[in-house]
Please model this.
Amino acid sequence: MTQLTNAYMTENCERYIPNPTIPKWNQSYYFNFYDRKARLGGFIRVGIMENLGETNGFAVFFMNGKPLFTRVNMQLPYTSDRLDPGLEVAGVKLTATRPLQTCSISIDTEDFGAELVWDLRFPMGDSIALTKDGDDAIARELAYVHLEGVCNVTGTIRLRDGKTIPIEDGGFRDISCGPRNWAGVRHYRLAWPIFDNGMSCVAVHAITEHGDSYQKILHDGERWHSIGRLEEEIEFEPDDMGFKFVQWKAWDEEDRLWEFTGTPLFRWQFPFDTFVMVEQMMEFRLSDGTIGYGMGEGGFRFPWEGNGN
Model:
């Protein structure tokens, strides 16, 4: 697919990686978190498409199910900076303070501030490499390398009235590089839960121009596992885009069944011209009652082609 090796891209994923042969070559950095005590969370992403001369980014925070801060910029000028050693996009500063381990994000406006740190609980797993279906449909359209990590998230949020809210809970982050051709994806749905018993997973089902494809890995508290089989049922809101209720079943490489359900706490939409990501923070529950939190997301190509159900 490319002259760059996966080992090289993985090792350098937070740094500058060029590939002039792919018009929609992308490097992206994504973060989310949810603090259950404060009932406060957020989604932050930066995508850099060097050969198109574009940068996109968003930072959306919420509390008690309502927005706190929303900054969405989907077609900014190109930046040559990367997470390592650091970059700033539309006032959102992101810095790899310890490469492939710890990252800080800072926002400082008159009405809102955030000083947060994502620190990995264990090494990141590559959900492309660990998905063993012999199917590269997602890789051809969305990424050659997609590193996932479960993090402790700490820091503070500052509100307009000067109140400071401490954050100390969990969140996901990912790093990816490769093509990013949203036009090649008809629809996808995903779940990224982090459960209190240490289990977390990346469950992605995408319908692309090349057929159904998956990213699917699971961490059982000890190590990353590939997922042999994945099933999901999604109940949508009346607009056919937001998740009302989800149920996922994952059988890992040892044939253990992990089954969980989820309901949304907050929802926001991020447009990419003729594609939209619908991002939701979810409360999840394993079949044994263990609680978890994390993202549930759907993506939809326009003109409208349905939600995959």
Summary: The chain has two helices and 19 strands. The longest helix spans residues 6-11. The CA atoms of residues 230 and 250 lie 5 Å apart.
